[in-house]
Amino acid sequence: MKGIIVLVVSLGIAISLNAQTAKEFFVLMPDEMLLDLNRSGKMDLVDLYEAGREAAIVNKLGDTLLLEKLTPDYLLLNTGKSSLQIVVLSMLNESQLYCFIQTACGPVCDSRVEFYSPSWKKLNAEAFITPAPPAWFIQANADFAAPAVSFMQWLYDPDTSTLQQINRTPDYLSEEDRRMIQPYITKESRDYHWNGIRFE
């Protein structure tokens, strides 16, 4: 009997430590996933947001962090020159997946897209999305060499459930190079939609 009680309690702890909503993923995720904000700070932001107040705190680096949007399936945190988006994705097998988008904006915005299980196990991103390569945005017969580096910003729209890949590479170029490349840019962004397995 004692063994059964221990098993039930252990299962309860395991379930409670797994994320289900965007809020749970954000509050419970390991601190190393967001180095400038600990669990106490994350809880403060959520409490302020849910109280209808401005959800802003100053972290230990002196940066103001603003929780701009929070729903069961989406979170947007603005950290000044960077942002974090968390998207809860429903799988066809009724499990959940978490899309974690970190964007840093210096002179140009560039994003990193990662996927995690409810227990914060990092998954292979290629299994869930195939980003368009830089050449996809440029006319095929363009008679110039593509830039050696590329910058891609990713934005998720929770209202339309659309993940957008935006080519920011032209913003990185000099004004002269930008004028030269502009006529050959055929697409500035690409939209993806979740089908229960991956973004297509």
Written overview of the protein:
A seven-stranded antiparallel β-sheet has the order 1-2-3-4-5-6-7, with helices on one face. The chain starts with a helix and ends in a 7-residue tail after the last strand. The model is unreliable at 1-16 (pLDDT under 50). Helices cover 22% and strands 31% of the residues. It contains five helices and ten strands. The relative contact order is 0.11. It folds into two domains: 26-70, no CATH class; 81-200, no CATH class. The chain has 200 residues and is of the alpha+beta class. The protein has helices at residues 2-16, 22-28, 39-50, 169-172, 175-181; strands spanning 56-58, 64-71, 74-78, 82-90, 96-105, 109-116, 122-123, 152-157, 162-167, 189-193. The chain is globular and about 55 Å long. Helix 2 runs antiparallel to helix 3.
Strand and helix order? HHHEEEEEEEEEHHE
Q: Sum up the overall morphology in one term.
A: globular
From the N-terminal CA to the C-terminal CA, the straight-line distance is 50 Å
Poorly predicted regions are 1-16
Find the count of extended strands (DSSP E, 2+ residues): 10
* Content-based structural category: alpha+beta
Report the sheet-strand fraction. 25-35%
In total, the number of domains comes to 2
Which strand order does the major sheet show?
1-2-3-4-5-6-7
Q: State the helix count.
A: 5
Mind summarizing the main beta sheet? 7 strands, antiparallel
Helix fraction by DSSP (H/I, runs of at least 4): 10-25%
Q: What is the overall pLDDT average? A: 86
> What does the radius of gyration come to?
20 Å
